[in-house]
Amino acid sequence: MKFAVNDGDSVNAGDLICVLEAMKMEQPLNAHKSGTVKDIAAKIGETITSGSRICSIVD
Predict the structure, then answer these.
(1) Would you identify the CATH topology of the domain 2-46?
(2) Which of 29, 31, 43, 57 is most buried as measured by Cβ atoms within 10 A of its Cβ?
(3) Count of CB atoms situated within 10 Å of the CB of 57
(4) C-alpha span between 5 and 18 (Å, rounded)
(5) 39 close to 56: Cβ distance less than 8 angstroms
(6) How many Å apart are CA 47 and CA 5, to the nearest integer?
(7) What are the boundaries of each domain within the chain?
(8) What is the pLDDT of residue 44?
(9) Distance (Å, rounded) from C-alpha 55 to C-alpha 17?
(10) What is the pLDDT of residues 26-41, one digit of tens each?
């Protein structure tokens, strides 16, 4: 996992949040809404499971 944002950064809907790596393929994860990135829960290099919270985007 590679992050393109930091905690407290402002994002617009569609902005890149992070890139997930699965089975040697990279999958970009984009913001679903505009707001401020808060509470980044995932760490670089960490294995996560489906449905895990990566971060929050608040208004």
Answers:
(1) OB fold (Dihydrolipoamide Acetyltransferase, E2P) (2.40.50)
(2) 57
(3) 20
(4) 7
(5) yes
(6) 19
(7) 2-46
(8) 84
(9) 9
(10) 999 999 999 999 999 9
Following DSSP, what letter does each residue of 25-53 receive, concatenated? EEEEEE-SSSEEEE-----TT----TT--
Report residue 44 as tokens.
């670089």
The identity of residue 2, as a single letter, is K
**CA 34, 29, 52 angle in degrees (round to 5)?**
100
- 6-59 pLDDT, tens digit per residue, is 999 999 999 999 999 988 899 999 999 999 999 999 888 888 888 999 999 999
| pLDDT at 25 (0 to 100) | 94
Structure tokens at 27: 């999958």
Q: Quick one: tokens of 52?
A: 């895990």
Using CA atoms, how far apart are residues 26 and 57, in angstroms rounded to an integer?
22
The pLDDT assigned to 45 comes to 83
